[in-house]
Amino acid sequence: MDRPDLSLSGIVLDTDDVQMLSEFYIRLLGWELTQDELPGWRKLGAPAGPGLSFQLETNYRPPVWPAGTDRTPMQVHLDIQVTDLAPAVAFAQECGAVLHDFQPQDDVRVLSDPSGHPFCLFLH
Q1: Glyoxalase-like domain location, by residue (predicted)?
Q2: pLDDT per residue as tens digits for the range 45-80
């Protein structure tokens, strides 16, 4: 069977507060809001590649990183490339991110967004 025409058009993060989480990523990434259907959906357009969307999940529970056996493990995370790690971490924290205690590598910092989704800032 031939592969049909498929392309990744976006990444969707579940949250119990669509507006709060989308505003965090607008500040962090500087992307524009391209679709606004509050309270249940918002989408940010990326300068290149897939956008980032936010979907209301009233029963949302944040994942845990590093994974434990008794709570929801992380199943996906965002990698965000930076040129200078320390100011990028400080800016992310100013936007509302939380830096994790456990850091697996010197050139990567693992943080969580305000809904608890882990993401990595890494040097290129």
Answers
A1: 11-122
A2: 999 989 999 999 999 999 988 887 777 778 899 999
Residue 22: band (very low, low, confident or very high) from pLDDT cuts 50, 70, 90: very high
CATH pick for 1-59 out of 3.10.180.10, 3.20.130.10, 3.40.50.1000, 3.90.228.20: 3.10.180.10
67: number of Cβ within 10 Å: 11
Size (the chain), residues: 124
* DSSP H/E element including 41: strand 41-45
The pTM of this model reads 0.92
Rounded distance between C-alpha atoms, residue 113 and residue 124, angstroms? 21
